[in-house]
Amino acid sequence: MAKCTDIDDREDESSCGHICINSPGSYVCACNSGYELNEDESTCDVNYLKTLWDRISMSVKLCLLVTNSVKYSWVI
Question: Which superkingdom, per the lineage (predicted)?
């Protein structure tokens, strides 16, 4: 849990699930890649669709890389 402290001397503290971005008089919580900020604007949950899409995308890229580097020959 990242600790986030407001810097405008109000001694207001809040906890961000992943990343805390301080600014004068305020702060914003953010999430690591593959996660999304919940409605409470403090905690994060896994973004399953993004994680799945990233995995599919990586598989397609690997498949294209292998396919493009192999020379095909057919014997008829």
Answer: Eukaryota
Three-state secondary structure readout of 8-34: CCCCCEEEECCEEEEECCEEEEECCCC
- Domains identified in the chain, total number: 1
The CATH number covering residue 41 comes to: 2.10.25.10
Domain span at residue 53? 2-69
pLDDT per residue over 20-64, tens digit each? 988 888 888 999 888 889 999 899 988 777 666 676 676 666 565
- Helix%, strand%, coil% for the chain, nearest 5: 30, 30, 40
Other C-beta atoms lying within 10 Å of the C-beta of residue 30: 15
The reply to whether 74 falls in a domain is: no
